[in-house]
């Protein structure tokens, strides 16, 4: 149980070629005549038993430091040279988290170790964090984006929320996980600015909204299995709720409350009510309404927004109707008229709420939840003109993102198309990528100016992911003139650029591209799986099914891109009907691996269902080896049920 804290001593006797890692300090190492060695690790500060850790194996230890304490990265030898590209921001994060919490890092060292076949993504064992193998990325991936940076922040921040102050019970798990999840927002906001933080929050909120967890409370006293608590509600919803709480309290009280909670309960345990008391103490505000609603109640805000204009007395009434449960919350409404905007802050606490505001000139945009802090689904009917104005004038990442998504549906409108082109120069790279993904170059001869801008992005954008997205767009034009650009891209260090260049070249010269693929190492091919799978599917090359099978599930379920999902869904169908034993085996293994890894999103149950369907497909087929294939599929299902 998480409230049984203790100190800890561990002795590990291992073959002397292995290194060991555990919590706390390595006190001694004793070699024995039989070629083994005993390592003695001691953690002299109290922590919870679920944080105890033993690691043994052949690792390269890459050394770093923070304020005089050891910060070590244990990786496979092959990744020694990139260990600092993966983990090297850890000391800077330790400084940032120490500052923002007002509580310096409390432990004697900080080690991170990467292991194979780990049961989940990562785990915050005190001073000995373990990461799954996905943490280990090649240079070509790291140039594009370090996909593990958020996880590194998350596990580190547990050394304040989780390891230092621990959830008193699994029911209160969110006091660990919501903060660890929110730390990624805080880190991105600090290091890269609000756009990246808000883009990340958007993804987290989508994960919650799509999980159909509306009936689950953040703090749950009745659950079947403690593993059930490790879900998107404890993590992502909790994270969004903290973000709202920060808005309700203001930054000063929010961070002071965090500090108060950590100091009050350090090396002990706490539950959500104690979190409430910590924030109340520093803010002087009663927060029962907030905690009862969000921590001990379920659901989220659902609004429909309508507007009534009175052009005789120049007022607009904004009607806010709550569609589901009635929540109480502060709401920001921005009214744009003339060259400026006016922010109105109101409280919503009824099912139907109306707020009337005066204006001098008819507003060009009314932006409800202008701060974008609410955990809410908002149905707000805006015109295309509103969205074009919003894209150009409203500052938040979501203002631009939502506007761009709508504008992209109306590219036959000249102003809409021009606004979409403007998004190619957005300061935030994910907006530039979104614009590239959505741009429609049908009737390309009228769109020379846009194409020139895309060429420019393909060559010069400072983000390799944007260059890659631009190359993909140019590839669809099937213009032989781009051949030098694509060939240059095939020598890029960036896997994203390499992959998109490969596929773009394929559109103009199939043979040259297939020859090129054959020269790539197996390892590089794995990292370019999306492009190569795309090509193999186009080629209808059955001998490549085992390769495709290794990537089909990630493509279907882990990609946010609809076209990628569609492509892999077709490949999935192709594999499921085939008699290719290796492909069926690879697919089954991947189901088992991802099913276990994403159990908290119920992927294990979905995997079992899909394997069951595959069994049925094979039963109906005329494949001669179908009995053998069905056995492989059923063995996979059994592994997920155990
Ligand atoms: Zn966590």
Automatic annotation (TrEMBL):
The Peptidase M1 membrane alanine aminopeptidase domain, residue ranges: 89-294
GO BP of this protein: peptide catabolic process
GO MF: metalloaminopeptidase activity; peptide binding; zinc ion binding
Membrane spanning residue stretches: none
Pfam families per the UniProt record, alphabetical: Peptidase_M1 (PF01433)
Annotated keywords: Aminopeptidase, Hydrolase, Protease
Keyword Protein biosynthesis: no
Keyword Protease: yes
Entry GO terms, CC: cytoplasm; extracellular space; membrane
InterPro entries the record matches: Aminopeptidase_N-like_N_sf, ARM-like, ARM-type_fold, Peptidase_M1_aminopeptidases, Peptidase_M1_dom, Peptidase_M4/M1_CTD_sf
PANTHER family noted in UniProt: PROTEASE M1 ZINC METALLOPROTEASE, PUROMYCIN-SENSITIVE AMINOPEPTIDASE-RELATED
Protein name: Aminopeptidase
Organism placement in taxonomy: unclassified sequences, metagenomes, ecological metagenomes
